[in-house]
Amino acid sequence: MRTNALPKFAGRRIAAAALALCLAPGLAPAFAAGAQAAEGNEGRWYFGLNVPVMFIDNTKTDVSGSMTIGQATGTYTTKAVSHYGLGFRVGGTVGYYVIPNLRLEGEVFYGFARVKKSDHSGTRVMAAGNTIPIPGTVTARIKGNAKMLGAMVNAWYDIPLDQQWSPYVGGGVGVFHADFSGLKWDTDLIAREFARPLMCSGMQGAPAPGTPQCEGALAQIKGARPSDKDTVFAFQVGGGIGYRVDETTTVHLSYKYQMAPGLQFDGKAGGTTIKTKSAMRIHLFEIGFRYLF
Questions:
Q1: For residue 4, is it within any domain?
Q2: Above 90 in pLDDT, residue 254?
Q3: N or C terminus: which one in the chain shows less Cβ crowding within 10 Å?
């Protein structure tokens, strides 16, 4: 079996090499033409505009805080997952061709995406030396848009195939500002559900769960709203393909993956505090253009 397989394998290698030799004369002019077109860009500036459709992954957030209810004080931890709708963004760029195929650019962008809800699960309330798990999921319905503003420094490497088409790959680093100030949601609802084990245990004179006394006591609880804004380091990677319309204008389609880690939003209201830590992971499908000058 091995003696038969070896000639077949060798034959395939020879056939592949022959095919490559046959195709090389046809491919060489295309790559040469692309290289010549790229050489003309060295030392030139460009500006551009990108208009992407934006998808934000469900954001997982670690939440912790404390509650003071009468004489009782407790702390809590929970895992929150925020769900987003379709988002949009617009970005402007200014770039420079350092060498024929390598360009550096600065990018600024603004975008927004609808926030639909936040699910809290795995909640634990700690009070008087006891840990009380809260089963199930507490959901807060949210209305409004999360807004994003940022600036990146990118490096892109073009791979010219011919005088028109040039795929490219690269990435960048920069700053990312998240703004949730326009969101409307019931922070009291979350606080009341977390406080329920402290106030409605049915023991030691506390009202029993589900009674009017319990619900009346919970109605007095006010939840802390996290701060609305934070600015963090961010990075992105991606690629695309450009089509050269004429000597100065190139249109392109691209995909970028952008991540903003370490976002923190803290807040306080009365006897309730909240601390959150999360990261935003964003997928961008862009259409845009570059104009050489």
A1: no
A2: yes
A3: N
User: CB of 153 within 8 A of CB of 172?
Assistant: yes
For residue 256, the tally of other CB atoms under 10 A from its CB is 24
Q: b/e string for 132-167 if b means 16 or more Cβ within 10 A? A: bebeeebbbebeebbbbbbebebebebbbebeeebe
Cα 123 to chain centroid distance, Å, stands at 25
- Most distant CA atoms of the chain, gap in Å: 91
Q: Residue 46 is part of a domain; what is its CATH number?
A: 2.40.160.20
DSSP string covering 120-171:
EEEEEEEETTEEEEE-S-EEEE-BSEEEEEEEEEEEEEE---SSSEEEEEEE
Single pTM value for the model: 0.80
- Indicate whether 269 belongs to any domain: yes
Q: How confident is the model at residue 12 (pLDDT cuts 50, 70, 90)?
A: very low
Q: Classify residue 288: in a domain, yes or no.
A: yes
CA distance 168 to 140: 42
Point out which residues pair with 62 in neighbouring strands: 79, 277
Structural domain boundaries enclosing 237: 13-292
Number of domains in the chain: 1
